[in-house]
């Protein structure tokens, strides 16, 4: 943390003061924009799965603190690599929305597998590390997506988004612990997987208002090419009318 503080203080350029003061209710008002609310609720549900993985998995692993630390170190390495290297390339090739939906679907599948094999430490350890790959892509792209989701200032959009999404992070550890302790250790993973699947459905519902996020950045002036990744048409059998990307 000290290194991070020093890097922030000495390596980043000074940011100008905000042009105007914003009220505490402006982020709440910003959620009236459907595009921003869609991304925020998607993040709430995805964070529910993420914090279930983060907070509950150490209990069925039942390993030493060092062993669990090494497993989550592998998770962090995977997250860092895909967030820095894979996410921008996938975004340029396929567009933000298809990539986020695909990474969420894969994360949900990962949680479901962890639920099926919750009594097998090797599967749980591998599931944690593999989840880092999907979460790295999703963290990068969904955070970027929210900044352009509504015609509001970036700070306001970020505040509204964070207010909603961390509700999932607040509830998930407590609920996962209760379910694992009082019912069985598989159920928290299944509930997390279901929440992430709901996130895919919520994001699909914003396919039209978030149309600008469907376009690969490498083809911003052209219609997006057919994507082999997940789309609402493939996921839910929807027939959507193409909209302008301007």
Q: What attributes characterize this protein structure?
A:
mainly alpha, Growth Hormone, Chain: A, 10 helices, 70% helix, disordered C terminus
What does this protein structure show overall?
- Pfam families: MFS_1.
- This is MFS transporter.
- The protein has 246 residues and is mostly helical.
- The protein has a domain of 162 residues: MFS general substrate transporter like domains (Growth Hormone, Chain: A), CATH 1.20.1250.20.
- It has ten helices and no strands.
- The chain is globular.
Brief summary:
By secondary structure, this protein is mainly α. It is built from ten helices and no strands.
* CATH level-1 class of the domain at 53-214: Mainly Alpha
The count of DSSP E runs of length 2 or more, i.e. the number of strands, is 0
Strand content: under 5%
Put simply, the count of helices is 10
The oligomeric state is single chain
Would you identify the regions where 5 or more consecutive residues have pLDDT less than 50?
A: 219-228, 234-246
Looking at the structure, the CATH topology of the domain at 53-214 is: Growth Hormone, Chain: A
Helical amount: over 70%
Q: How many strands, which pairing sense, and closed or not: the largest β-sheet?
A: none
What are the secondary-structure elements, in order, as H or E? HHHHHHHHHH
Give the overall pLDDT as a whole number. 85
User: What spatial form do the alpha-carbon principal axes imply?
Assistant: globular
Structural class per helix/strand content? mainly alpha
The CATH architecture of the domain at 53-214 can be named as Up-down Bundle
- What is the rounded Rg? 19 Å
- N-C termini distance: 42 Å
Q: Please, what is the CATH homologous superfamily of the domain at 53-214?
A: MFS general substrate transporter like domains
């Amino acid at each position: 943390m000290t290194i991070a503080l020093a890097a922030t203080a000495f390596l980043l350029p000074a940011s100008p003061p905000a042009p105007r003061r914003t009220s505490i209710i402006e982020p709440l008002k910003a959620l009236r924009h459907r595009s921003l609310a869609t991304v925020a609720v998607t993040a709430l549900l995805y964070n529910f799965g993420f914090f279930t993985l983060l907070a509950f998995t150490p209990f069925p692993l039942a390993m030493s603190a060092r062993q669990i630390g090494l497993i989550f170190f592998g998770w962090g390495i995977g997250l860092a690599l895909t967030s820095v290297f894979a996410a921008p390339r996938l975004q340029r090739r396929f567009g933000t929305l298809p990539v986020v939906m695909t990474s969420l679907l894969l994360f949900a599948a990962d949680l479901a597998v962890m639920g099926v094999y919750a009594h097998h430490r090797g599967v749980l350890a591998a599931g944690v590390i593999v989840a880092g790959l999907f979460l790295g892509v999703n963290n990068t792209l969904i955070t970027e997506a929210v900044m352009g989701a509504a015609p509001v200032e970036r700070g306001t959009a970020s505040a509204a988004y964070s207010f909603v999404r961390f509700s999932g992070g607040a509830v998930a550890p407590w609920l996962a612990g209760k379910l694992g302790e009082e019912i069985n250790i598989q159920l928290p993973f299944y509930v997390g997987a279901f929440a992430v699947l709901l996130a895919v459905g919520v994001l699909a519902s914003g396919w039209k208002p978030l149309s600008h996020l469907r376009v690969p950045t490498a083809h911003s002036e052209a219609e997006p090419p057919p994507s082999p990744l997940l789309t609402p048409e493939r996921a839910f059998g929807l027939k959507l009318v193409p909209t302008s990307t301007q």
